[in-house]
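Minutes, project check-in

Agenda point 3 was the complex the collaborators sent over. CS summarized: two entities, 966 residues total, and the question is how they sit relative to each other. Sequences were read into the notes so everyone works from the same version.
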Amino acid sequence: MSATDVARQAREAFDETQTLLSMRGSEQADAARVKALECIRAALEQARDEIQAANQRDVAEANELVAVGKLSKQLVSRLDLFSKPGKWESMLQGVSDVARLPSPLDVCTRATRLADGEPATGARAATGPLDLYRVTCPIGVLLCIFEARPEVIVNIASLAIKSGNAAILKGGKESKHSAAVLSRCISTALEQSELPRYLVQSVQSRDEIQALLHEERYIDMVIPRGSNALVKSIRQEARMPVMGHADGLCAAYVHEDAPERLAVETVLDAKLDYPSACNAIETLLVHRHHCTSGLWCTLAHALLAAGVRLHCDDESRACLDGALSDAERSLVCAATPEDFDTEFLDLDLAVRIVGSVDEAVQHIQQHGSGHTDVILCKPLHEGAATPGTSAADIFTRSISSSSVFVNASSRFADGFRFGYGTEVGISTGRTHARGPVGLEGLVIYKYVLRSSGDGAQTAGAFAPGEHQRAWSHRALDNVYPTL
Amino acid sequence: MSATDVARQAREAFDETQTLLSMRGSEQADAARVKALECIRAALEQARDEIQAANQRDVAEANELVAVGKLSKQLVSRLDLFSKPGKWESMLQGVSDVARLPSPLDVCTRATRLADGEPATGARAATGPLDLYRVTCPIGVLLCIFEARPEVIVNIASLAIKSGNAAILKGGKESKHSAAVLSRCISTALEQSELPRYLVQSVQSRDEIQALLHEERYIDMVIPRGSNALVKSIRQEARMPVMGHADGLCAAYVHEDAPERLAVETVLDAKLDYPSACNAIETLLVHRHHCTSGLWCTLAHALLAAGVRLHCDDESRACLDGALSDAERSLVCAATPEDFDTEFLDLDLAVRIVGSVDEAVQHIQQHGSGHTDVILCKPLHEGAATPGTSAADIFTRSISSSSVFVNASSRFADGFRFGYGTEVGISTGRTHARGPVGLEGLVIYKYVLRSSGDGAQTAGAFAPGEHQRAWSHRALDNVYPTL
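CS then shared the predicted structure for the full assembly.
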């Protein structure tokens, strides 16, 4: 089957669900989606042995590649669905968790009375009021492309179904055996449900992806999850919007008035909690005051003690001269200009001394990737309005990254931690959805305009003239009357 | 100056405004933007003679092209800023109107307490609560590409400034003299304001556009306004999200239970109020019942009397046989398959008989462009919940176009009529913003996470362990404390 066929089939399945579920109210439609998710969970549980066998084949083949140095051990552990206790169970639990989330669909987010009703005049019948509702709806067909972890197939399928979308999934070639069985379970479950079988489909080859990225007639959004190189190549090729992030070049800035303990503990967490995560910091900006306050030295000792290699600008390195042991000194090097544009994803940190919050902001504007940036400064007081010129204020207003944090670790930039239950991914884009994206990022809205009364609602009636109607443009209670 | 320079300059100007205005509160920042808009209006008023002279040159050159059949007369009237009474004044008034709209920026749309504060324990200082705010912010740099109307430069510049964005504008070559003077006025006004001069820039050549469409480093969104061909070519080339619409293939469906007068009056308005508008209907679907009810004949007579050429399927044409005068008959032809995929933008209408609302829905799903579709049916009663299986319900739930109307003309799909004051354009996309897009479509949001209290906020503190902190994920009142 060609990529075009897959894409058209996905669009047809999407249209079919829209029609199918349109006979129900919103609650009944959500119930049908929940039921399909329960079928998926059951199908996965039933096929556990088969999935495990397929997963073991993937792991075995990957291990051969590790042996010849063609694959990292890390990747094998990401592939393996069964060795780590609880991983398989938590994948299953994820399906149920998504099913239980409130439906993101059919939510009225704005209601406006465009015009009041008018009595019959002359040849014109009485017209009722004209009311406009903005109501959330699915986006349509999603193309999701990801790398090693086979459970992402199940996660994304669940999210797509819950949000009323169709999905085409493509996993990494390393997980192909697992992906094939997982996908078959999903298809079988969909066949048993009320939803169309082709609502979720998988494709295997890279060539198909190339072709699908040009099927903007049928595919509405691409969600890549994986390496920088993967995301960048998809951004280049795709003819439809892409949601995701290539780089996570996060920075922490330690302002002049930051308390030492707060700064040190937060920076350590931001760097060390999970160094290969996209929300770990890669750049540290320190206010010049801390060259003499001692904070920078304390912070450097703590980072070096944890094995972090510091790529220091001249000024930050000069500060440390004479204060370091030989072992520590071996972890300090001179920063190259490229270091400030590098996502290390490892125990490396680029360090630069700056003279002000403005200089920190400028550095981040020039080098950041719009993911998450942090200022560490004098503690805020709860509820108190900070003055417009505090460093925290300038920083949060000036930095246009998707997440801007005051006195908190960059590691909080995460859908679960933000309270979204689950996450589609983190987006550094500047349209549609940004930061950690939950189910809300998989829906959009449509406008429903409803007239009541017997008379026609014509735009012409609002044109200047004897019986010209007037606009009212008045907010209504946010209630969508058909739900 | 190269396209890259223009794009980089725009990004720098954007970053500069973010920093510049960050010293103020939200109200002061909006005041600075309003003041810049007032400067623009004053600069335009002052340069009226010069603008008029430039505009006359454009009109004269266009008229030469009209004389040799290379340009339509319509286009000349769109070019002409001064002949039609009130056009110039309404362009100026538009600047003031946009200035007066409520600021779309710094609006907190969600506030969550991620975790409550914790007292000091062991080596850990007391931490205050950790609060997450989702706050609206500008998108960044917009590239706006449009055709003839020179006043669009002023409209879009106003909208971009009010919403905190930077803009690069490219008008049609027909309006080049007018555009040059208008742009210069805007730049001069910006120089006199507190905003950076390069916040709004213009480019002239097509080649520059090609290059700019690849500057995804600096440009965040493209807004094309113009012909189908223009929008399609931009969609193909752009590496950044595109907001707009290529086709406006709108349909009206007359259901079995639609009252005749309501249906006829609404369809006439939808087709005739402004036939070359994107929200005029191009397709009419009529329930088979109306072949015998007489409604279709009445409607056809009314359309033909207004000079509409009907491209009829066999069934709808057979109905009219014997009922038409010779003059009427000359306006009726057999529909080709392409007619149902054609945006006529003229007094042409493709007509098809369908057997049910489902068949109408399927037709629209296959042939529509996602702009605006209308159902005409039994009048709804105000406030009453319609049963889940009414035709209106099935239609509004099944059709995933950006605007779906019940008993109202498609011509209401318009930013002004929707009550948005002004419109950036109409989007048929399925992400970010859809339908008539007002200032809200030019903003996005960022997450601001704020800790209070002296202790560090680390993700590690929430990991399983003795002093594990708990998530609270509780909604806060939507108040952003720094505003």
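Noted in discussion: Chain B has a mean pLDDT of 92.
Follow-up: revisit at the next meeting once the mutant set is ready.
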